[in-house]
Give the backbone structure.
Amino acid sequence: MNETDLLKRKLSDLARKAYTSNSYTFTNFLSLQELSVFASMKSELSFIEASIFGGIDNAERCVIRFGNKDELGYELDFPIDIIKISPLSPKFSENLSHRDYLGALMNLGIKRELLGDIIVKDKDAYLFCLDHITDFILENVNKIRHTNVFLTKLDSVELTKIQAKKEEIQLIAASPRLDAVVSSITKLSRSKVKDLFLQKKIFVNGLCNENVSYNLKAGDILVIRGVGKLEFLGHGKETKSGRIYVHLNKYI
């Protein structure tokens, strides 16, 4: 049985458990690719309500909750905590990347599915994790690379500090087709862009999209793994060469 089939079985089991026991069930954090598998099962799992959340709006890694208040008679929050990671001495800290933070956590033996998004803001990082692993992280993470750090568990009212900011950009593309816009964003040739599709690195509105000729619409959220997340705003006038100006919000 391959990984996709195993995931489908796990999702089916959690959905049926919630339905038969009249209680909420939750997945671990799922990647965009795994969330696409869930989306493909919508009709199969239609017997129970499901919601998706990653601790913050537009999170890439999310938890699925089976069950809702109308069906079960009570509300239960997603089991997600937020941890702020800060340098003890900002003046002498390194410029740490997402990979640095993730590597330090994985080196402690923490499985990736227990961790959500890691948002790096200047010298700080904000980690979303399942709540049963929070205390272990708080007690065991004290250094990222060569930088000594301290950790603080945040409450939801501080989420406004870490909401993603957007910067409007304008590019020139051959058309609003997905492959053309991806090529413009990445500055890759058509053949290289095709490789991104084959490697399942292109997502639109949270779902893996392998349709190179898909025409982007205003409001579509485009994620290119390894490149970033953008919101397609639309396209404007043509250039003299027949190409078009495309407008996007880039998440920063």
